[in-house]
Fold this sequence. Notes:
alpha/beta, 430 residues, 15 helices, 6-stranded parallel beta sheet, 17 strands, homodimer, 11-stranded mixed beta sheet, Alpha-Beta Plaits, 26% strand, Dihydrodipicolinate Reductase, domain 2
Amino acid sequence: MSSAPTTVKIAILGPGTVGTEVVRLLERQRDDLEARVGAPIVIAGIYVRDTAVPRDPAIPRGLLTDDADALIASADVVVELMGGIEPARTMILAALERGCAVVTANKALLAAHGPELYEAADAAHADLYFEAAVAGAIPLVRPVRESLAGDHVRRILGIVNGTTNYVLDEMTTRGLGYDVALKRAQELGFAEADPTADVEGYDAAAKAAILASLAFHQRVSLDDVYREGISAITPADVAAASEVGLVIKLLAIAERTEVGVNVRVHPTLVSATHPLAGVHGAFNAVFVEAEAAGELMFYGQGAGGLPTASAVLGDIVSVARHKALGGKGPRESNYADLPVLSIASASTRFQIRMLVVDRPGVLASVAAILAAHGISIESVRQHHTSDRAHAEVVISTHRAPERDLERTVADLAASAVVHEVLSVLRIEGE
Amino acid sequence: MSSAPTTVKIAILGPGTVGTEVVRLLERQRDDLEARVGAPIVIAGIYVRDTAVPRDPAIPRGLLTDDADALIASADVVVELMGGIEPARTMILAALERGCAVVTANKALLAAHGPELYEAADAAHADLYFEAAVAGAIPLVRPVRESLAGDHVRRILGIVNGTTNYVLDEMTTRGLGYDVALKRAQELGFAEADPTADVEGYDAAAKAAILASLAFHQRVSLDDVYREGISAITPADVAAASEVGLVIKLLAIAERTEVGVNVRVHPTLVSATHPLAGVHGAFNAVFVEAEAAGELMFYGQGAGGLPTASAVLGDIVSVARHKALGGKGPRESNYADLPVLSIASASTRFQIRMLVVDRPGVLASVAAILAAHGISIESVRQHHTSDRAHAEVVISTHRAPERDLERTVADLAASAVVHEVLSVLRIEGE
């Protein structure tokens, strides 16, 4: 496989929605694509478990095969679009070992076994591209990997789940409650009947692991990612945020600190003037802070067959071009071996919203609890509530370590003057 | 030059602000960069007109040379950071003819002589990369060229000039007048003492030509770009837009129509919920509508030595990697030969703001003038003014051809019921 192929042979594994669009686009744009690759391209075959199952007319029957080994052995580029862990993992490893370039859209696999796959690609000097696995159609992996090659990424803040962005956006712009907004999302096809994977942040956490690996050349897997979903967010949280010019977004955050990296997914308050605040509906966006390039943001559709196919095709062109140029892929990078830190070591600003007893001196007691933990208050707002016995207090803190915050919230909740801690939200992007 | 170099030799032409940062970053990140390139990289030399002039300490004196020919002849990759048309044009052409890959940040040169340079690169099968020439640090050229390789771009809407975005943003968010906002921009270093190139849209027009070439594989030069600046925008325009949820941005627009492409720069009304509306201060962003990928946006810093150097470095890594892989560059694409259309053929929605005589029947007369030109009205708003003799009428039209609009505005201005046409602004992004 290491000499330049006169024709680049492509194997497609799994002609589902995305795979079918990829085949269609490959055929339709063949002239353009070959000009960019610098060599003819041909689909060597399409792996399916059962060749007898009827397929979309765009899939030529003659190309179907249930012999994955033989197909991979004949290919220069393997495009894995089956999803799931197995047999995708085994087939990708077999392809990389043979020196094939691999393109995959398989987020679950990369989040669970990314480090193993990155190492296998590295060892074989083979390309492993996965643009479609992180944020659908948004060109993100290539910019971070190539355009920022001479730069250092400090932090990534990403809206990487369209369902939760849709729900939070509806709550923010229309004042809907969580349940109503989620129901709308389900009716419009933006949320599944069982929305757990989206609303509890599991999908975003998988993407956060991939993003962190990419940004820091660091092996990060799903288990390293702290995760909180949006199901506890109330209209009162949204309103309290809005009052001071903030909006709530579910963010995947990957951050390089002096001692390591921390990777987390949680509802986050960002300024209404931050570019991420302008990401509406089910769109995705990834905000990158790099040393030399400064602030960058990449915005687009995070899902959908056609957008995802577009991202896969871009990857195919890149790796096919490298194949046509005849060399082995270079080693992607020197992997770093930074500690992946727990959430306790993260440091952010916080907004604590609580019901307190409505009498003089209460604010002083609350402030004393924060002071005892070394947490500095940036602002306090107080509202009277309808029951007259309680007031609502919203405290924004200066940057503080997460571990101090946890203890502070516990002390607040236990305090005689605090009736209830209503919510604790992190503030980012400043 | 066509066999794989064991070491990739880089020539830097012009060690100004950006060039110095590039040299500094190249040295600081050498290990990382070489891992990504897959071969050792070395700075073969740095061309300066006068080797005796003192330089930044980051520039090794021993690498300076005033012999550009000899330097280019010894290089694999030539990085042109001199700016201006000559001798940059001649040196780049010489480098391409020799099969060198070329990286340039020279917007003026590409806008004026882009087609000649793209053809020379194509003929020599050499890479010509220019990420830093369009929108500073924003990775844009590579995503459009590679990630969207199998897609078709329909339209690009870009905020590509930081000065004008800063001025319009100050007018919008602080209610400042144009002169005051411009003065602030000058004080903060966002605008030059002579701001003409920015505020009259010349800089944006140059970038529009490059963007259009890129998006449509079409040779577009500065002369093909229709251009209007922002100096006529008044606080009343901003307020009238804001009343109906619109904001004014100076956009570079490149559009593929059924009969050709049209490329233009003018103040444009976009919805306050459009992602471009969330681009504040001196930031840049480019919004892309593609057939398969859908809507994408790329956001970041459009200028500055360090961000620009970051973009140049990303390009160096890409072309050096191709050199290390040993092949000639592929032909970039099949260039299209679409007609580049005049502004008269463009079609947009319009907002016409005018002072009319304040008496019954005037709206009917105004509507009749639009109807006579086949222009359909979407909404009309009318305000009384302080002088009582006149009313202000703001008409938003449905999509209409620019040529019809011009005639309509002429007829409105000549009408007895119209005292003055205050402004005509295009509405985009819907």
